[in-house]
Amino acid sequence: MFKKVIMGLIALMVMSMAFTVPSMAEDKIIKIDGSSTVYPVTEAVAEEFQKAKKGSIKVTVGISGTGGGFKKFCRGETDISDASRPILNKEMDLCKQNGIEYIEIPVAYDGIAVMINPKNTWVKSMTVADLKKIWEPAAQGKITKWNQVRPEWPDKKLNLYGAGADSGTFDYFTEAITGKSKSSRGDFTASEDDNVLVQGISGDLGALGFFGLAYYEENRDKLKIVPIDDGKGPVTPSEKTVKGGTYQPLSRPIFIYVNAKSEDKPEVKEFVEFYMKHAAKLVKQVKYIALPDGIYKKGLDRFHKKDKGTVFHGEAKIGATIEDLFKSKPKM
User: Fold this and answer.
1) 3-class secondary structure per residue, the chain
2) What architecture does CATH give domain 2-108+254-326?
3) What is the C-alpha separation between 183 and 192, in angstroms, rounded?
4) What is the pLDDT, as a whole number, of residue 236?
5) Domain 111-243 CATH (choose: 3.40.50.360, 3.20.20.70, 3.40.190.10, 3.30.1360.30)
C-alpha cells in the first residue's frame, strides 16, 4: 500500500513538471507588431536572434501597420512596436492612459518611392505639386485622368495605389505631400500589404502608387520609379540620395519602440542589444539603408539609460535627419 502511495506521488510530480515546463517556455516570447515597412528589418533580426539562442526564445513579428501596431503596443499587448514614423500625440495619450512608457530607437533610413507601370512612357518625373494635385482630398472623383495633372500627358485613366490608413507610410506621405497627415482622397486601392500594391501597379498601365523604397528594390523588374522634384530638380530615391537628404520630402528614419517595462525582461533586453549590434549588416541584407554605426551605439545607450519618450513631440516632422534624433532628450 505504502509503495502505491509513493508511486502515485511520483506520478503527480511528473505530471506537474510536464505542465509547468511549457509555461516556462511560453514566458520567453517576445511580441512585436506594427509597420509593414519596418517588418523586413525586424524579421531578419528576429530570425538571426532565434538562431543564436537555439530556439530558447521565440520572437513573433506581426504586420498591422504603424497605427495598428501602436494600438496594440499602447494597450500593453506587445513588447516592441515597429514604426515607419514617430509616435503621434493620440498614441502618446493612449500609452499614458494605460501606463505604458517607451523608448524610441531609430533602426534604418527609408525613402518613400513613387511608382508607375513599366510601360508608362509619358512620365519622366513628377513635382511635389503634381502629387498634391493628385492626392489631396479635393481631387477625389475629379482628377481621374493623366492629362488632368499635366495637359501634355495622355487622356488615359489614372488609377491610384497606396498604403492603407493604418500605415505610417500613409501618414508620412500625406503629411509630406498634402501638408496634413491622413489628408488624402479616398478613392484609391489601399493595402497594408505592399505586395498587393506591387501586383496592382505592375498590372495596370494607368497606375500610380507609393510605398517604401525597399519594396521597390525587391520588385524593380515589375515597376518603374519616378524621380521627384521638390523645387531643386528631379531626384531619384537611392541609398545615396536618401542618406544624404537630397531626396525630399519623402526620406525618413524608421523606428522600433520598446516598452520600458519589457526592458526588464532579460529576453527583450538581449533582443534589443542583438538588434543594435547586428542592424547595420541585416538592414543592408534586406535592401534598406543602414544608419551610421555611431547612431546604433547611441540608440543602444538610449535603451540602457532608459531615456523614455520621443524627440518628435507627437509630430511626424518632414525632412528630419538622423542627427535631429539625438539633439534633444526624449520626452514622454
Assistant:
1) CHHHHHHHHHHHHHHHHHHHHHHHHHHCEEEEEECCCCHHHHHHHHHHHHHHCCCCCEEEECCCHHHHHHHHHHCCCCCEEEECCCCCHHHHHHHHHCCCCEEEEEEEEEEEEEEECCCCCCCCCEEHHHHHHHHCHHHCCCCCEHHHCCCCCCCCECEEEEECCCCHHHHHHHHHHHCCCCCCCCCCEEECCHHHHHHHHHCCCCEEEEEEHHHHHHCCCCCEECCEECCCCEECCCHHHHHCCCCCCCEEEEEEEEECCHHHCHHHHHHHHHHHHHHHHHHHHCCCECCCHHHHHHHHHHHHCCCCEECCCCCCCCCCCHHHHHCCCCEC
2) 3-Layer(aba) Sandwich (3.40)
3) 17
4) 97
5) 3.40.190.10
What per-residue confidence (pLDDT) applies to 204?
97
Q: Domain ranges for the chain, please list them.
A: 2-108+254-326, 111-243
| pLDDT higher than 50, residue 179 | yes
